[in-house]
Amino acid sequence: MLRLCIALCVLATCWDCLVSNITVKQDFDRMRYQGTWYAVAKKDPVGLFLLDNVVANFKVEEDGTMTATATGRVIILNNWEMCANMFGTFEDTEDPARFKMKYWGAAAYLQTGCMCRFTIIYYFLCYIIIYIVI
């Protein structure tokens, strides 16, 4: 068992983790992406503002831009727990399945880094897998 664990660790160090090499969903349809999404599991990277109980609503506006509202539990000043409401817009890239999110208002100051989203695979009736780089 120890040998298997060591072999997996060595293999993991050889894995290509360049964001530009991530294969994304082909034929991405943002109209099907809009709606309400619930975060059921996530890793907590440094700088991610919403901790848990995250519910996001994505909407495609009439001009084609995509916006998002999200609510979730946050801790401010290391001890003040509250529910935060956030608003953001998506910045398009050359690939429709790759987009960046920009928060507005107070959330713009609380979120650190660039939140880049990559839609890897989706089955809209059940789930979506999103890789987020902060």
Automatic annotation (TrEMBL):
GO terms under cellular component: extracellular space
Transmembrane segments: 108-133
Keyword field contains Transmembrane helix: yes
GO MF annotation list: retinol binding; retinol transmembrane transporter activity
Presence of the UniProt keyword Nucleus in the record: no
Domain annotation Lipocalin/cytosolic fatty-acid binding: ranges: 34-105
Coiled coil: none
SUPFAM superfamilies: Lipocalins
Signal peptide span: 1-20
UniProt keyword annotations, A-Z: Membrane, Signal, Transmembrane, Transmembrane helix
Family: Belongs to the calycin superfamily. Lipocalin family.
Protein name, per record: Retinol binding protein 4, plasma
